[in-house]
Amino acid sequence: MSRPPGASRHAAELDLLSFNMQVGIGTKRYREYLTRGWRHLLPSLEVQENLARIGDLVAGYDIVGLQEIDAGSRRSGYENQMELLARRGGFSYWHSLVNRNLGHVAQHGLGLLARVRPFAVSEHALPGTLPGRGALLAQFGDPASPLAVVVTHLALTRGSRAQQLVALRRLVAPFEHVVVMADTNCSAGHLRRAPALADGALRVHGERLVTFPSWRPRRGIDHILTSPGMTVTHAEAVDVRLSDHRPVAMRVALPPDVAAGLARPEAVTDTA
What we know:
Elements: E1 13-20, H1 32-35, H2 45-58, E2 63-70, H3 81-89, E3 93-101, E4 107-114, E5 118-125, E6 134-140, E7 147-153, H4 158-172, E8 177-183, H5 188-193, E9 222-226, E10 231-237, E11 248-253, H6 256-262
Parallel strand pairs: 1-2, 7-8
Antiparallel strand pairs: 1-11, 2-4, 3-4, 5-6, 6-7, 8-9, 10-11
Helix pairs in contact: 2-3
Protein backbone atom coordinates (compact mmCIF):
# COMPACT_ATOMS: atom_id res chain seq x y z
CA MET A 1 0.00 0.00 0.00
CA SER A 2 2.78 2.42 0.88
CA ARG A 3 4.44 4.50 -1.84
CA PRO A 4 8.13 4.03 -2.66
CA PRO A 5 10.53 6.05 -0.50
CA GLY A 6 10.93 9.58 -1.83
CA ALA A 7 7.85 9.41 -4.08
CA SER A 8 5.71 12.54 -4.10
CA ARG A 9 2.66 12.76 -1.88
CA HIS A 10 -0.72 13.62 -3.42
CA ALA A 11 -2.08 16.53 -1.38
CA ALA A 12 -5.57 15.00 -1.14
CA GLU A 13 -4.48 11.82 0.63
CA LEU A 14 -2.14 10.61 3.33
CA ASP A 15 -0.52 7.25 3.99
CA LEU A 16 -0.50 6.59 7.73
CA LEU A 17 1.25 3.93 9.80
CA SER A 18 0.81 3.08 13.49
CA PHE A 19 3.27 0.61 14.99
CA ASN A 20 4.16 -0.68 18.45
CA MET A 21 7.82 -1.30 17.65
CA GLN A 22 8.82 -2.82 21.03
CA VAL A 23 11.98 -0.64 21.13
CA GLY A 24 13.20 -2.38 17.99
CA ILE A 25 13.11 -5.90 19.41
CA GLY A 26 12.02 -8.36 16.75
CA THR A 27 10.25 -10.97 18.88
CA LYS A 28 9.31 -14.03 16.82
CA ARG A 29 7.77 -16.39 19.39
CA TYR A 30 6.43 -16.31 22.95
CA ARG A 31 9.44 -17.95 24.56
CA GLU A 32 11.66 -15.07 23.41
CA TYR A 33 10.00 -12.82 26.00
CA LEU A 34 11.94 -14.92 28.52
CA THR A 35 14.96 -16.21 26.64
CA ARG A 36 15.78 -12.90 24.97
CA GLY A 37 14.28 -10.49 27.46
CA TRP A 38 17.76 -9.08 28.16
CA ARG A 39 17.38 -7.01 24.97
CA HIS A 40 14.99 -4.75 26.91
CA LEU A 41 17.94 -3.77 29.13
CA LEU A 42 21.15 -4.03 27.10
CA PRO A 43 22.20 -2.90 23.62
CA SER A 44 22.13 -5.50 20.86
CA LEU A 45 23.48 -5.60 17.32
CA GLU A 46 20.41 -7.60 16.35
CA VAL A 47 18.16 -4.76 17.54
CA GLN A 48 20.20 -2.22 15.55
CA GLU A 49 19.79 -4.31 12.43
CA ASN A 50 16.07 -4.65 13.08
CA LEU A 51 15.75 -0.88 13.54
CA ALA A 52 17.21 -0.44 10.08
CA ARG A 53 14.47 -2.70 8.71
CA ILE A 54 11.86 -0.66 10.58
CA GLY A 55 13.37 2.47 9.03
CA ASP A 56 12.95 0.95 5.58
CA LEU A 57 9.32 0.11 6.39
CA VAL A 58 8.31 3.58 7.62
CA ALA A 59 9.97 5.23 4.62
CA GLY A 60 6.88 4.52 2.54
CA TYR A 61 4.48 6.61 4.66
CA ASP A 62 3.63 10.26 5.23
CA ILE A 63 2.88 10.29 8.97
CA VAL A 64 3.98 7.53 11.34
CA GLY A 65 2.94 7.07 14.96
CA LEU A 66 5.14 4.76 17.03
CA GLN A 67 4.61 3.21 20.44
CA GLU A 68 7.33 1.74 22.68
CA ILE A 69 10.26 3.74 21.39
CA ASP A 70 13.44 4.47 23.34
CA ALA A 71 14.55 8.09 23.32
CA GLY A 72 18.12 7.41 24.36
CA SER A 73 19.25 5.01 27.11
CA ARG A 74 21.75 2.20 27.60
CA ARG A 75 19.64 -0.33 25.66
CA SER A 76 19.51 1.96 22.59
CA GLY A 77 23.17 2.86 22.78
CA TYR A 78 22.11 6.30 24.09
CA GLU A 79 20.71 7.17 20.68
CA ASN A 80 17.16 8.45 20.23
CA GLN A 81 15.51 5.79 18.08
CA MET A 82 13.23 8.39 16.51
CA GLU A 83 16.20 10.32 15.15
CA LEU A 84 17.67 7.11 13.76
CA LEU A 85 14.39 6.15 12.06
CA ALA A 86 13.94 9.67 10.69
CA ARG A 87 17.35 9.48 9.02
CA ARG A 88 16.75 5.99 7.66
CA GLY A 89 13.24 6.81 6.42
CA GLY A 90 14.06 10.20 4.96
CA PHE A 91 11.86 12.19 7.35
CA SER A 92 12.90 15.72 8.19
CA TYR A 93 10.52 16.01 11.16
CA TRP A 94 10.42 13.77 14.22
CA HIS A 95 9.34 14.09 17.85
CA SER A 96 9.62 11.79 20.85
CA LEU A 97 7.63 11.83 24.08
CA VAL A 98 9.15 10.04 27.08
CA ASN A 99 6.39 8.51 29.21
CA ARG A 100 8.64 6.53 31.55
CA ASN A 101 12.00 8.06 32.33
CA LEU A 102 14.07 5.30 33.92
CA GLY A 103 17.38 7.08 33.44
CA HIS A 104 20.12 4.96 31.89
CA VAL A 105 17.85 1.90 31.91
CA ALA A 106 15.12 3.17 29.58
CA GLN A 107 13.65 6.30 28.02
CA HIS A 108 10.36 4.66 27.10
CA GLY A 109 7.72 6.49 25.12
CA LEU A 110 5.95 7.52 21.94
CA GLY A 111 7.21 8.86 18.64
CA LEU A 112 6.05 10.77 15.57
CA LEU A 113 7.59 10.90 12.09
CA ALA A 114 6.16 13.26 9.48
CA ARG A 115 6.89 14.62 6.02
CA VAL A 116 4.64 17.57 6.75
CA ARG A 117 5.77 19.95 9.48
CA PRO A 118 3.26 20.42 12.32
CA PHE A 119 2.68 23.99 13.46
CA ALA A 120 2.03 22.86 17.04
CA VAL A 121 3.01 19.85 19.14
CA SER A 122 1.96 19.15 22.72
CA GLU A 123 2.46 16.35 25.24
CA HIS A 124 -0.27 15.12 27.58
CA ALA A 125 -0.29 12.71 30.52
CA LEU A 126 -3.19 10.26 30.62
CA PRO A 127 -5.01 9.10 33.77
CA GLY A 128 -4.92 5.54 35.05
CA THR A 129 -4.08 3.29 37.97
CA LEU A 130 -0.39 3.27 37.05
CA PRO A 131 1.57 6.30 35.80
CA GLY A 132 3.42 6.36 32.51
CA ARG A 133 0.72 6.61 29.84
CA GLY A 134 0.55 9.67 27.63
CA ALA A 135 -0.53 11.16 24.32
CA LEU A 136 1.39 13.15 21.74
CA LEU A 137 -0.74 15.69 19.82
CA ALA A 138 0.50 17.31 16.60
CA GLN A 139 -1.43 19.85 14.53
CA PHE A 140 -0.77 20.09 10.80
CA GLY A 141 -1.79 22.39 7.97
CA ASP A 142 -3.88 25.53 8.30
CA PRO A 143 -4.51 26.59 11.93
CA ALA A 144 -8.02 27.59 10.87
CA SER A 145 -8.77 24.00 9.82
CA PRO A 146 -6.00 21.78 11.15
CA LEU A 147 -5.43 18.05 11.02
CA ALA A 148 -4.93 16.86 14.61
CA VAL A 149 -2.85 13.69 14.90
CA VAL A 150 -2.60 11.86 18.23
CA VAL A 151 -0.15 9.06 19.04
CA THR A 152 -0.89 7.07 22.18
CA HIS A 153 -0.63 3.72 23.96
CA LEU A 154 -3.49 2.76 26.26
CA ALA A 155 -3.39 0.70 29.44
CA LEU A 156 -3.82 -3.04 29.79
CA THR A 157 -6.69 -2.78 32.27
CA ARG A 158 -10.26 -1.99 31.24
CA GLY A 159 -10.84 0.63 33.94
CA SER A 160 -7.74 2.65 33.10
CA ARG A 161 -8.45 2.41 29.37
CA ALA A 162 -11.93 3.81 29.93
CA GLN A 163 -10.45 6.81 31.77
CA GLN A 164 -7.88 7.31 29.04
CA LEU A 165 -10.46 7.21 26.26
CA VAL A 166 -12.43 9.92 28.06
CA ALA A 167 -9.26 12.03 28.32
CA LEU A 168 -8.45 11.49 24.63
CA ARG A 169 -11.96 12.43 23.56
CA ARG A 170 -11.65 15.68 25.53
CA LEU A 171 -8.21 16.31 24.04
CA VAL A 172 -9.47 16.15 20.44
CA ALA A 173 -12.86 17.79 21.10
CA PRO A 174 -11.75 21.19 19.68
CA PHE A 175 -10.80 19.65 16.33
CA GLU A 176 -13.00 18.65 13.39
CA HIS A 177 -10.34 16.61 11.58
CA VAL A 178 -8.62 14.00 13.74
CA VAL A 179 -6.44 10.91 13.42
CA VAL A 180 -5.58 8.78 16.47
CA MET A 181 -2.80 6.20 16.04
CA ALA A 182 -2.68 3.84 18.96
CA ASP A 183 -1.90 0.55 20.55
CA THR A 184 -5.22 0.46 22.41
CA ASN A 185 -4.73 -2.96 24.04
CA CYS A 186 -8.32 -3.79 23.10
CA SER A 187 -10.40 -4.84 20.12
CA ALA A 188 -12.27 -2.67 17.65
CA GLY A 189 -15.53 -3.95 19.14
CA HIS A 190 -14.51 -2.78 22.60
CA LEU A 191 -13.68 0.67 21.21
CA ARG A 192 -17.03 0.92 19.44
CA ARG A 193 -18.83 0.11 22.69
CA ALA A 194 -16.81 2.58 24.76
CA PRO A 195 -19.04 5.37 26.13
CA ALA A 196 -16.32 7.94 25.42
CA LEU A 197 -16.61 7.25 21.68
CA ALA A 198 -20.39 6.93 21.54
CA ASP A 199 -20.84 10.32 19.85
CA GLY A 200 -19.20 9.04 16.65
CA ALA A 201 -16.58 11.78 16.52
CA LEU A 202 -13.91 9.09 16.18
CA ARG A 203 -14.53 6.09 13.97
CA VAL A 204 -12.95 2.67 14.27
CA HIS A 205 -12.17 0.98 10.98
CA GLY A 206 -14.79 -1.61 10.04
CA GLU A 207 -12.54 -4.45 8.92
CA ARG A 208 -10.91 -6.75 11.46
CA LEU A 209 -7.18 -6.10 11.34
CA VAL A 210 -5.29 -8.60 13.49
CA THR A 211 -1.94 -7.41 14.78
CA PHE A 212 -0.89 -9.47 17.82
CA PRO A 213 1.21 -11.51 18.17
CA SER A 214 3.10 -10.71 14.99
CA TRP A 215 4.16 -14.31 14.29
CA ARG A 216 0.59 -15.66 14.50
CA PRO A 217 -1.82 -12.72 14.84
CA ARG A 218 -5.13 -13.45 16.53
CA ARG A 219 -6.07 -10.14 18.16
CA GLY A 220 -6.62 -6.71 16.66
CA ILE A 221 -5.39 -4.34 19.37
CA ASP A 222 -3.67 -1.69 17.22
CA HIS A 223 -5.89 0.88 15.53
CA ILE A 224 -6.03 4.10 13.55
CA LEU A 225 -9.18 6.05 14.40
CA THR A 226 -10.41 8.85 12.14
CA SER A 227 -12.98 11.62 12.29
CA PRO A 228 -16.02 11.29 9.97
CA GLY A 229 -14.76 13.86 7.45
CA MET A 230 -11.93 11.60 6.30
CA THR A 231 -12.52 8.69 3.95
CA VAL A 232 -10.49 5.53 4.47
CA THR A 233 -9.58 4.18 1.03
CA HIS A 234 -7.35 1.33 2.22
CA ALA A 235 -6.40 -0.31 5.51
CA GLU A 236 -4.30 -3.33 6.39
CA ALA A 237 -2.24 -5.01 9.08
CA VAL A 238 1.18 -5.10 7.45
CA ASP A 239 2.61 -8.62 7.22
CA VAL A 240 6.02 -8.05 8.86
CA ARG A 241 7.66 -9.48 11.98
CA LEU A 242 9.72 -6.56 13.24
CA SER A 243 8.17 -6.46 16.74
CA ASP A 244 5.68 -8.51 18.72
CA HIS A 245 2.97 -6.42 16.99
CA ARG A 246 2.21 -5.92 13.32
CA PRO A 247 1.81 -2.35 12.10
CA VAL A 248 -1.53 -0.92 10.95
CA ALA A 249 -1.41 1.05 7.70
CA MET A 250 -4.15 3.28 6.36
CA ARG A 251 -4.65 5.58 3.40
CA VAL A 252 -7.09 8.42 3.98
CA ALA A 253 -8.63 10.92 1.59
CA LEU A 254 -8.65 14.37 3.15
CA PRO A 255 -11.34 17.06 3.13
CA PRO A 256 -10.42 19.85 0.67
CA ASP A 257 -9.63 22.44 3.36
CA VAL A 258 -7.25 20.07 5.15
CA ALA A 259 -5.58 19.03 1.90
CA ALA A 260 -5.06 22.66 0.94
CA GLY A 261 -3.39 23.40 4.28
CA LEU A 262 -1.05 20.41 4.02
CA ALA A 263 -0.07 21.37 0.46
CA ARG A 264 1.28 24.78 1.45
CA PRO A 265 5.02 25.03 0.59
CA GLU A 266 5.95 26.00 4.17
CA ALA A 267 4.23 22.87 5.53
CA VAL A 268 5.95 20.26 3.39
CA THR A 269 9.37 19.30 4.75
CA ASP A 270 10.17 16.17 2.71
CA THR A 271 12.90 16.97 0.23
CA ALA A 272 13.77 13.40 -0.77
